[in-house]
Amino acid sequence: MIKGTVWQRLDFVARNLTPLLVSLCLVIISVVPLRLPQISFIVPALALMAVYYWGLHRADLLPAPAIFFIGILQDILSGGAIGVNTLIFLAVYGVCVSQRRFFYGKSFLVVWWGFMVVTAGALALEWALMSVISETIIGPRPAYFKYLATIALYPVVAWMFTRIQRTLPVAE
Amino acid sequence: MAQRFAFLFLLVAAGGVLLIGKADPKIFDRTRMVVTDTLAPILDALSRPIATGAAIVDEVQYLVNLRQENAALRSDNARLIQWHTAARNLAAENKRLRGLLQFVPEQASQFISARVIADSGGTFVRSMLVNAGRADGARKGLPVVVGEGLIGRIVDSGERSSRVLLVDDLNSRIPVVVGPDRERAVLAGDNSRRPKLIYLAANAQVQQGARIMTSGQGGVFPPGIPVGVVSSINANGVRVESFVAASDLEYVRIIDYGLAGVLERDRRDGTARGY
After folding, report:
1. Nearest CA in chain B to A34
2. H/E element holding B114?
């Protein structure tokens, strides 16, 4: 277990909290206005990348209640119906945790391919939930562009996550 | 096993929250505003450097287009001088006619300037947060404008932040008049970049480029705020280019006309609500 001075313990706790803090930062960044009218319609699902990455690689540091919390925050800040992102993030997390043996030790391309599949499912679910809640069929175009932006940006964010993961204490 | 149970519990809880929120959208209003109010300073601070970055990009674009723009502005200026003369004549005539009618001038309105601190992104929800709340006089139902015209209205007000529902959101319905014939219609957002006109009379004559203004029906918005121009007319309906798509929405103004509109009253039928 944890040994050492108070500072070492604090350091250990802080490192273990990193995945959660990074995810929360991504939620906040995703709502900061970009002021570029041409592209502000397309915002990649940043928090979804965090849920997928940490769900696959270090689910022990980002447990299900943390995912719930991240989802609720995303719902509140984005102004949509509360529960939509919460449900989607939990579903994605569930898939990641159950499939992580398959992805273990596989190359990045395989993990990226997995992200494409999972994101397609997640955005389809979001589109369906929003359509049901608003009781109309929403045009799928914005969701399609969001999908492209999200999968295109994933390698960059995943590279950042990999750097962070190297600094984390190893799971027992 | 325990973990699996916890996961299922959370999944059910998320579904439950969703259903409760759908059944009574007001139930989370308070939580929503407390959280956004708490995070408002962080969002405010984060939005500033991004605004600076965007300003630099703009600056470069200006320099690139300078020559072209200059030519366009010269021809615009020549045209506007003619309009200026026409407008002065009309203003003078209007003043005399008002004098004849003993017209009561419209109520003075108050403006609250606010910065946009968060943007929902726009895939399924078109709304944003501004850094003015109840402490600054912002309250639910007030129209929000940029220089050119209307962009939305306030749907929720916290102490120091408010949520603005944009005119192109799915839940936005605004009574408007179209063109010089003042045909009545409702501007309905559908999450696309161009909201559409619904409930337009079948024999209405609408032309591309016709200007659209609020009609003031329903008492939420005062009449006469520009909302956009008709951008396309086809079998699927009439689409409108709003000011939301065209502007970069850094600063907005909230107008208080002193109207006690329908949104002030506590309606639960959902049609006039934000969520």
Report:
1. B50
2. strand B110-119
CA-to-CA distance for A16 and A76, rounded, in angstroms? Answer: 25
Q: If we measure between CA atoms, which residue out of B94, B114, B116, B115 comes closest to residue B105?
A: B94
B72 contact A CB<8A: no
Q: Quick one: average pLDDT of B212-233? A: 87
B226 and B265 in contact (C-beta within 8 Å)?
no
A87 reaches B (C-beta below 8 A): yes
- The count of domains in chain A is 1
Give me the domain span that covers residue A73.
6-166
Q: Which H or E run includes B91?
A: helix B29-101
**pTM listed for this prediction:** 0.81
Per-residue tokens: A102:
């398959």
Tell me the mean pLDDT in the region A133-147: 85
CB contact under 8 A, B10 and A139: no
Q: For the segment A77-103, what is each residue's pLDDT rounded down to a tens digit? A: 888 889 999 999 999 999 999 998 898
And the tokens for A46? 């940043």
Phi-psi region of B218 (alpha: psi -120 to 50; beta: other; left: phi over 0): left
Residue B123 sits at the chain A interface (C-beta within 8 Å): yes
Taking CA atoms, A122 is separated from A147, A154, B8, B168, in Å, by 10, 15, 18, 24
Topology (CATH level 3) of domain B108-266+271-275? Thrombin, subunit H (2.40.10)
pLDDT band at residue B83 using 50, 70 and 90 as cut-offs: very high
Give B56→chain A minimum CA distance, Å.
11
Cβ-based contacts of B189 with chain A (< 8 Å):
none
The answer to whether residue A172 sits within a structural domain is no
| DSSP-assigned letter for residue B194 | S
Residue of B nearest to A75 (CA): B32
B236 touching A, CB under 8 A? no
Window 101-160 of A, Cβ < 8 Å to B: 126-127, 129-130, 133-134, 136, 138-139, 141-143, 146
Residue A111 covered by a domain: yes
B109-136: per-residue pLDDT in tens?
A: 788 999 988 887 667 888 889 999 999 9
Considering only alpha carbons, which residue of chain A is nearest residue B164? A79
